[in-house]
Specification:
homodimer; 281 residues; alpha/beta; Rossmann fold; 6-phosphogluconate dehydrogenase C-terminal fold; 2 domains; eight-stranded mixed β-sheet; 13 helices; 13% strand; globular
Chain lengths: 281, 281
């Protein structure tokens, strides 16, 4: 099987490495807008060749992965579908789904496309960030899979299953809502934490000195790139604003309890927060 | 050397294991308010014996570590100092310093006490949470060390040095300010994130399904116990309120930019947050 990966960053690159490691394809073709990233991806062995023409890259593949930021995705995915024919299968790996699925809803090749969101990543980006095993044991969400051809869904289930991923089917609206609650909000809190500390702590050496594992893990996502995250926040804006308002409310409540010195209620709130331990042990 | 550890939780227990591993003491005596924790600490080999009488436990030791929550610390540390005489040395390992140092400022044995804050920990608590190597490569802050006897400071430097810790000297006011900025605020953001997700996401299975490494790391500190954290927030209340106000301001600013669809400024803010990468690579 030949696989074409469009966008050789953290996710596209890691998927190439993982699929190759599992022996699921022999030949990997890469498409990458950045010449520097394309060269590095070749050096790192993420792909076997770089193809600069999108439709040429698509036509030679059995399976096509579109792994570009969500703003580019809205233009690239329809162009990819223009070039495919059965039995070729196309997936995206994007973090938001409603806008994307609307953009291809009436495409004549819609059935060849399976909307997929592997819930895995790190704060790093680019081909250097690609690692095999990134997806091992993680969840992959397939969205509106009933609008994809059954053979396309089967191939996608086989490939992600071989990477030891857990499959979850959601409709696009539910996907965007739940990922806002669980994934997107934690990036915003982390960006805001970094901005807070950089604003208050003018002695950068003190941040380095005093950063323990706790601070480092909470602020880790603040290293994530705006090129990836601004399009996600844009496409999932209403859900993110909704959960962000709840988060502001919770923070203001904790502030009020501390200001009032209501330590009994503060203890109750922290005990309530500790329930997360039951869900994520 | 005999070391007495008062409070056999995460920090006290890990310190016992680490000091023993480095061969820095032969005999460890434990004092622990919870009978269950005392038994478990013996089973786990954190200490060689449990002593129920505080002054007996203190008098037989060369070096005494007080590792109880910050509210208990205000009562226990003066009682420990009542029982010591040169050349015995006492340290605390607490996360706030101004209230504690004020509580022992006029104690006749003040010189035998060195205020220490090892910047290390996990979200877990109790003797089961103790691990050797917790302090390896981390920073330990010594506060107002000029008010301690030079031989006491020397012993503390030797012991923490043997654990491969980096030493940093700060006055108590600076310590409480900087730890509010870097450590205490990240616990509040994490508690608030957990409360937000638990409030919005009524389907707990969805949290489990969709929690990727990013969410898990951001919410990790929300598993921390109120018994430890409420006293810290109480004793560092004004600094914490100050940094919490800045954090609310930063979050509200991000919210405003997203509500207004000002993606240029949102990109700039995320780029600004990315500067944390230079300090914590």
């Amino acid at each position: 099987m030949t696989i074409t990966i469009i966008g050789l960053g953290l996710i596209g690159g890691s998927l190439a490495l993982s699929l190759r490691q599992q022996g699921l394809a022999r030949h990997f073709v890469g498409v990458e807008a950045s010449l520097a990233h394309a060269r590095r991806a070749l050096e790192l062995g993420l792909v076997d060749e770089i193809e600069t023409d999108l439709s040429t890259a698509v036509r030679q593949a059995d399976f096509i992965v579109v792994a570009v930021p969500m703003d580019a995705m809205l233009a690239v995915l329809p162009a990819v579908l223009d070039a495919v024919a059965p039995p070729q299968v196309v997936i995206d790996v994007g973090s938001t789904k409603q806008a994307l699925l609307a953009a291809v809803a009436r495409h004549p090749r819609r059935g060849r496309f399976v909307a997929a969101h592997p819930m895995a990543g790190t704060e790093h980006s680019g081909p250097e960030a690609a690692v095999p095993g990134l997806f091992d044991g993680k969840t992959v969400v397939l969205c509106d899979a009933e609008q994809s051809d059954p053979d396309a869904v089967q191939l996608v289930e086989k490939l992600f299953g071989a990477l030891a991923m857990r499959l979850l089917c959601l409709d696009a609206a539910a996907h965007d809502l739940h990922t806002a609650y669980v994934s997107h909000i934690s990036h915003i809190t982390s960006f805001a934490l970094a901005l807070t500390v950089l604003e208050k702590e003018k002695e950068e050496q003190r941040i380095f000195d005093l950063a323990s594992g706790g601070f480092a893990s909470t602020v880790r996502l603040a290293k994530s790139s705006p090129a990836m995250w601004v399009p996600i926040l844009r496409q999932n804006r209403l859900n993110v604003l909704d959960v962000l308002d709840e988060h502001l409310h919770q923070l203001q409540h904790l502030r009020k309890l501390l200001a009032r010195e209501d330590y009994g209620s503060l203890t109750q709130q922290i005990e309530q927060a500790n329930h997360i331990r039951k869900i994520l042990p």
